[in-house]
Design goal:
This protein has about 290 residues and is an alpha/beta fold. Bound molecules: S-adenosylmethionine. S-adenosylmethionine (SAM) binds next to strand 5.
């Protein structure tokens, strides 16, 4: 494989990609029975592959995870699914990753792949327009940002297509970091408003987190952070449920380095047809329960 290798993640990266790969395999199996034009859209495609970033005990413990092992990234996971998607759209903001994705595309000459360098928000809005006007188009969209890069308007555009199944790695920990020790919001908190499409998250940020599971009554910092991450996740899940007409998976997977809950991997279905969303949610919930 000639594509560039990025360094990030570890165990949690593998788990996230396993969830995605299982969903893609089930999706193409179900959808290929019909005459749909199937799109796989990767808004934060990376370079194609990664190795674990060192520096975290759990992620780098060789008994748990071999740090030298290449993790095949989301684009490769999607390209190797059978039967294949009809269209692949890969987006990344970095020129080096785009060059690597183009080399990867050359390795799959029989696939229809377009690689875009740019901001996922801009490219995805264009793709949503294309998908919306094509009656038979259906898509799985994967959003795998490092932080709060996805604007709420982009999520609204995806929901409005009524044709997208969305897997989104929601950066809940980045939300927590927007409040100073003194309980004041940082100027960069505006970015969280943009990500959530509301400033309602601020109420959670300054409320006392529910740490009632702490039997000894000692408010441990880690416990508090976890409680907060769960609260933000539930909040964000409700935000998605308010615009995705097919609904949102009950569960999400908490992911992050070591035992940190930095991200929540969530699933939402834009398709309002009962047959479509029941199938999508049944598969997604099963994968989220068992992976
Ligand atoms: C976590 S990595 C993606 C990993 C990839 N999904 C995989 O499985 O290998 C996030 C990627 O998003 C890219 N990125 C950051 N900001 C972006 C933006 N606004 N639009 C598109 N890509 C962006 C980075 O260059 C990086 O490659």
């Amino acid at each position: 494989m000639s594509s560039e290798v990025q360094k990030f993640g570890g165990l949690h990266t593998k788990r996230k990609l396993d969830v995605l790969a299982k969903y893609l395999a089930a999706y193409v199996t179900v959808m290929k029975k019909r005459e749909f034009e199937l799109f796989y859209v990767d808004g934060f495609a990376g370079s194609g592959a990664s190795t674990a970033k060192s520096g975290n005990a759990e992620d780098t413990d060789p008994t748990l995870f071999d740090t030298d092992v290449l993790i095949e990234g989301s684009p490769i996971r999607a390209l190797t699914v059978t039967p294949p998607f009809d269209r692949y759209v890969f987006v990344d903001s970095k020129a080096k990753n785009v060059a690597s994705l183009n080399r990867l595309a050359d390795e799959f000459p029989d696939r229809r792949i377009s690689v875009h360098q740019g901001d996922a928000n801009v490219v995805l809005t264009d793709i949503c327009r294309e998908i919306s006007v094509k009656r038979m188009a259906r898509a799985v969209v994967f959003l795998d940002p490092y932080g709060r890069s996805v604007n709420w308007q982009t999520i609204e555009a995806l929901a409005a297509t009524k044709k997208v199944d969305l897997w989104y790695l929601v950066p809940v920990h980045a939300i927590s970091r927007q409040v100073s020790e003194k309980g004041e919001f940082l100027p960069s908190a505006d970015m969280t408003d943009a990500m959530c499409g509301t400033d309602a998250w601020r109420k959670i940020a300054i409320s006392k987190p529910d740490v009632s599971n702490d039997l000894f009554g000692v408010i441990d910092d880690r416990l508090e952070k976890m409680a907060r991450a769960n609260e933000y996740s539930e909040f964000f899940k409700e935000r998605l449920a308010s615009i995705f007409q097919g609904g949102v998976a009950e569960r999400y997977i908490p992911l992050g380095r070591g035992r940190l809950h930095e991200f929540s991997l969530m699933f939402a279905c834009a398709n309002p047809s009962t047959a479509a969303f029941e199938t999508a949610l049944r598969i997604a919930n099963h994968i989220l329960r068992t992976t």
